[in-house]
Amino acid sequence: MEELKYHRILLKLSGEALGNTSGTGIDPQQAVQIARMVGSVRQMGVDVAIVIGAGNLWRGRVGIETGMDRATADYMGMLATEINALALQDALEKQGLEIRVMTAIEMKEIAEPYIRRRAIRHLEKGRVVIFAAGTGNPYFSTDTAAALRSAEIEADVILMAKKVDGVYDSDPLKNPGAKKYDYLQYIDVLNQGLGVMDSTAASLCMDNKIPIIVFNLIEDGNILRAVKGENIGTYVGEVRQ
What we know:
Number of strands: 11
Strand order of the largest sheet: 4-3-5-2-1-6-10-11-9
Order of helices and strands: EHEHHEEHEHEEEEHHEHE
Strand content: 15-25%
Shape: globular
Largest sheet: 9 strands, mixed
Number of domains: 1
Structural class: alpha/beta
Oligomer: single chain
Radius of gyration: 17 Å
Number of helices: 8
Distance between the termini: 22 Å
Helix content: 25-40%
CATH class: Alpha Beta
């Protein structure tokens, strides 16, 4: 068996990862592609937990900008993550994986309530665990949920899947001269506002010394490359390992 650098990962997916070419809705083919990559990692014996966003279905920011109550807009986003979690669960199960969706907002007909010890037990039994509904609280992003859950389950790393191949000093889709970072310290992310994740999430990772790898999800096999410790994307941490 190939040597792996990380044995328990938390994969952070944006809602747009499940979307069509414009990043909206749910594209079944996108879900299948992600499921295949997760399956290849799980076959290596890696414990896999996933936090998924909801930007393909609903952005609370849009509601807030039109005068919606912030808490209401955030709760709508949490409910949208449940839809994405179920879509991803179906795609993963079709790959022969055993899945558990755990939710921070109780809805017992479709998902288990989030209980830390139960989540860890699922991982120990080889199940992929999808964490839905963020932290269960308004005013916190799914990035913060990813940082919190990774600390709770003692994940070795957070793999932040993006549509670009790392962290840049400006938007590479708008600026052809944007500079890519291979390595950043947590404090760089906070001080420079680089958009890796929100400041609450970055601070939580810094406090708990959880490394972050920002990488391109579109390139097939990148999740496995990250787990093996190959030099892809941008590594965020105290000292590059």
